[in-house]
Amino acid sequence: MMVERTEESDPRWAAVDDYIADRLLGADAALDATLAANAAAGLAAIDVSPAQGKMLHLFARMAGARRVLEVGTLGGYSTIWLARAVGEGGSVVSLELDPHHEAVARANLDRAGVGDRVEVIVGPAAETMATLDGPFDLVFIDADKEGNVAYLRAAMRLSRPGTTIVVDNVVREGLILDAASTDPRVIGTRALFDAVAAEPRLSATAVQTVGSKKWDGFLLAIVD
């Protein structure tokens, strides 16, 4: 969860994230190696934080998810968290636009020992989602924000009653309050809120977050 900052961040945000990770997550060589490989391959450092990755993992376990869809793979950091949650016999389908990202993610997934339960599909997510069959138990959307509404609608088609949908980067340092914004990421995020509010099959909320990924937030919904 990361957004370009317009103001200075509070150093305590990252310090608290470090405290949480130290007390509740512990060391994880596979995830550390994934972040190192991503950096070495030139990928942007926009992965979810360790605490947020564990949150996704717990959401998937709470939902009893055995089949997960992820929109936006990057280097596979969040994918590993989700793949661990579905366990052996479960599966994750992750959609990635960039072939270079897919190659880095594939190596990371295999190194982490979860490659056999993850399929990474390369191409525009709006197109690849149309080729999939549901239902998925959990959908995590963390890709270009301009496509949020299209991804939500596709996710609804691939869902069942009880499916959990999580959308990342929905606060954007409070820029979602700016109805006159010309930033396509803000426009896409505001459109997402409108689409969720207008969808009677969804029960939803959104939560602001601060931490090592600065000020942002996520939207959480369940299909009724």
Brief summary:
With 224 residues, the chain is of the alpha/beta class. The protein contains 8 helices and 7 strands, in the order H-H-H-E-H-E-H-E-H-E-H-E-H-E-E. The protein has helices spanning 11-25, 29-40, 50-62, 77-86, 99-111, 125-129, 148-157, 184-197; strands at 67-71, 91-96, 118-122, 138-141, 164-168, 202-209, 216-223.
Strand and helix layout:
Blueprint: H1 11-25, H2 29-40, H3 50-62, E1 67-71, H4 77-86, E2 91-96, H5 99-111, E3 118-122, H6 125-129, E4 138-141, H7 148-157, E5 164-168, H8 184-197, E6 202-209, E7 216-223
Helix pairs in contact: 2-5, 3-4
Question: What does this 3D model show about the protein?
Answer:
The protein is an alpha/beta fold. The protein has eight helices and seven strands. It has helices at residues 11-25, 29-40, 50-62, 77-86, 99-111, 125-129, 148-157, 184-197; strands at residues 67-71, 91-96, 118-122, 138-141, 164-168, 202-209, 216-223. Helix 7 (148-157) links the parallel strand 4 and strand 5. The chain is globular and about 45 Å long. The two termini are 26 Å apart. The model has no long low-confidence stretch (mean pLDDT 96).
Strand order of the largest sheet: 3-2-1-4-5-7-6
Mean pLDDT over the full residue set: 96
Dominant shape: globular
The major sheet is characterized as: 7 strands, mixed
Q: Tally of extended strands?
A: 7
Helix fraction? 40-55%
Q: What's the alpha carbon Rg, rounded to whole Å?
A: 16 Å
Low-pLDDT windows of residues? none
How big a fraction of the residues is strand? 15-25%
Terminal Cα separation, in Å? 26 Å
